[in-house]
Amino acid sequence: MTSAPQSAAPTPAPALALQGLEKSFGAIRIIRGIDLVIPAGERHAVIGPNGAGKSTLFHLISGHYRPTTGSIRLNGEEIAGLAPEKINRRGLSRSFQITNIFPQLSVWENIRCATLWSMGYRYAFWRNVERLADAREKTERILGEINLLHRWNVPAGELAYAEQRALEIGLAIAGDASVLLLDEPMAGMSHAETERMVGLIRTVSEGRTLLMIEHDMSVIFGLADRISVLVYGELLASDTPENIKSNAAVQEAYLGTEAA
Ligand SMILES: Nc1ncnc2c1ncn2[C@@H]1O[C@H](COP(=O)(O)OP(=O)(O)OP(=O)(O)O)[C@@H](O)[C@H]1O
């Protein structure tokens, strides 16, 4: 009889694991039993027709909605039903379309606030000068990652729309999130801005897990390791972009209408 090798490394917990996830509003089942495992480091896109439940799914994962039933594990820990700020503290950050930005503060101050907050400077900003130097370095590094270093002194409210979206993503990563949720990050952008945003998302998701809702197929197929197709609150398929493209059921339910 052979015994299992003792040195086998434990398998790391997936970044996100959804099991039997459901959400109803009154009698209407919007999310109808979703099982999905997203390994750490994966770039995962959720697509689906209007009203399929994509935003509702994000609201459940980020804690803005409480599931009717089911489990959501973040890095192995159950988070279903926790408040958004608790989920955020456990390493999941969601970018909201510009609503987190302080428009009167400069780009630098916006990121610096989020950085200080994440480092525990809630009330005693003056406490530790050395750690303030850490915060400065981190702020600079994040501004570099989101290509806004040259705009550091501009009030956030005066940034171009695409730059504001980049700043939003900067705020999301300032808290050292290991899992990043982006809801239509390219919405309303020109072709050139979209291309730049794809590059930016590729950079900031390096070493993190990315879950994004996006409608632009060329973006998704170029960025995602795997794609989940949500239709009427159920996952029709969850697979590599190549397999999703050639999946007959997906084509019929979704891509066929896009290509038409
Ligand atoms: N708070 C709510 N109360 C009742 N119904 C809701 C609520 N939130 C969402 N819904 C319904 O759930 C369904 C799914 O909505 P959701 O916004 O999640 O879809 P979506 O896939 O993100 O759509 P879109 O691509 O248009 O943004 C819709 O029919 C919507 O009307």
From TrEMBL:
InterPro entries annotated for this entry? AAA+_ATPase (IPR003593), ABC_AA/LPS_Transport (IPR051120), ABC_transporter-like_ATP-bd (IPR003439), BCA_ABC_TP_C (IPR032823), P-loop_NTPase (IPR027417)
Give the domain of life: Bacteria
Keyword Nucleotide-binding appears in the UniProt entry: yes
Under Pfam families, the record lists:
ABC_tran (PF00005), BCA_ABC_TP_C (PF12399)
Q: Does Glycoprotein appear among the keywords?
A: no
Indicate the segments forming the ABC transporter domain, all copies.
16-257
Q: Record's CDD domains?
A: ABC_Mj1267_LivG_branched (cd03219)
What UniProt keywords apply to this chain's record, in alphabetical order?
ATP-binding, Nucleotide-binding, Transport
Listed GO molecular functions? ATP binding
Full protein name: Branched-chain amino acid transport system ATP-binding protein
Which species is this UniProt entry from?
Answer: Rhizobium halophytocola
